[in-house]
Design a protein that fits this description.
The chain has a single domain, classed as Rossmann fold (3-Layer(aba) Sandwich), CATH 3.40.50.720. Helix content is 43%, strand content 13%. The structure holds nicotinamide-adenine-dinucleotide. Nicotinamide-adenine-dinucleotide binds next to helix 2, helix 5 and helix 7. This is SDR family oxidoreductase.
Length: 285
């Protein structure tokens, strides 16, 4: 089959083209993670992609892969829980690209699963610092630049856990993700008139290195995984590649009127009622 776009596709595809855009993806250092896949996907769609992460080794792998697609990227070690490191990161982006068209916020902290009544304040505060304050500070730094330019787009990575409860010690994670969803809507309303769009992608359980590690545990594989799969109408875990198309769309001119949207990319997880099922024949027949 030819990979050359048809004449009809050629007329539409330029609206998805990110050629000439400068993007920053935070949390792009986990090889096989969602940020990693999105960073490479944006680069393949034409964007110049800067990346940041706390993981220096992972960052180097993503940087090498990006350099095989386009120009060698800015790859900055930065902890988004640290305001000074965020400032240094955005100053480096200014020097590297001279502008910022797109910010994608990906990192998260979920150090361990603790039942809410036993949760230490320090644990709660660490999760807020990365998952919420870090996202806010990165949005703020991006907005200051986008306001000067009069345009720009932000994509926050939220979660199905921000829209419904997971249990299993997910309380602080879920609360921060719900707050990221509201951060997205507030910023979209606040800055829509300034030509800046702010949207969120809401993943469901995805086969990333973190989840792969859980699959090694018999208790997870035998008891938790079947429950997760029962809630995914497509009958499979999500794949990091599943987020690439939606991210390119949200970043592109094709989504110019899409603002303040919380886009589930979850195989139908949030659409499904707890009593729903994708199992046939129905037991009532
Ligand atoms: N994987 C899933 O099943 C799933 C489900 C729903 C939502 N999500 C969301 O998707 C996003 C990506 O998840 P993933 O599983 O691909 O993650 P991942 O672990 O593969 O990647 C996250 C990256 O963020 C980096 N990071 C962590 N703390 C950081 C910090 N303070 N500063 C900078 N970088 C930091 C990590 O080093 C890692 O490279 C997260 O926001 C997560 O909440 C994931």
């Amino acid at each position: 089959m030819s990979t050359k776009p048809s004449a009809k596709a050629s007329a539409v595809l330029p609206r998805f083209d990110l050629d000439g855009q400068c993007a920053l993806v935070t949390g792009a250092g986990a090889n096989g993670g969602i940020g990693h896949a999105i960073a490479l996907g944006l680069a393949r769609a034409g964007a110049r992609v800067a990346i940041a992460d706390v993981d220096a080794d992972g960052l180097a792998v993503t940087a090498a892969e990006l350099a095989a697609i386009g120009p060698p990227p800015l790859a900055q070690i930065a902890d988004i829980a640290d305001a000074a490191q965020i400032e240094a990161l955005f100053a480096a982006v200014d020097r590297d690209c001279g502008r910022l068209d797109l910010l994608v916020n990906v990192p998260f902290a979920f150090p361990s699963r603790v039942r809410p009544h036993e949760l230490e304040l320090e644990h709660w505060e660490r999760m807020l610092a990365v998952n919420l304050t870090g996202y806010f500070l990165c949005c703020q730094a991006a907005l200051r630049r986008m306001l000067v330019a009069g345009c720009g787009s932000i994509i926050n990575i939220g979660s199905n856990a921000g829209e419904s409860a997971l249990g299993r010690g997910a309380l602080p994670y879920s609360c921060t993700k719900a707050a990221v969803h509201q951060l997205t809507r507030e910023l979209a309303v606040e800055y829509g008139g300034a030509g800046i769009r702010v949207n969120a992608i809401l993943p469901a359980q995805t086969l990333t290195p973190g989840l792969r590690a859980h699959l090694e545990t018999p208790r997870f594989r035998d008891h938790v995984l079947p429950r997760i799969l029962a809630g995914l109408p497509q009958g499979r875990l999500l794949d990091p590649e599943d987020y690439v198309g939606p991210a390119i769309f949200l970043a592109s001119e094709a989504a110019r009127a899409v603002n303040g949207v919380l886009l589930p990319v979850d195989g139908g997880n949030l659409a499904m009622n707890a009593g729903g099922s994708h199992v046939w024949p129905a037991a009532t027949e």
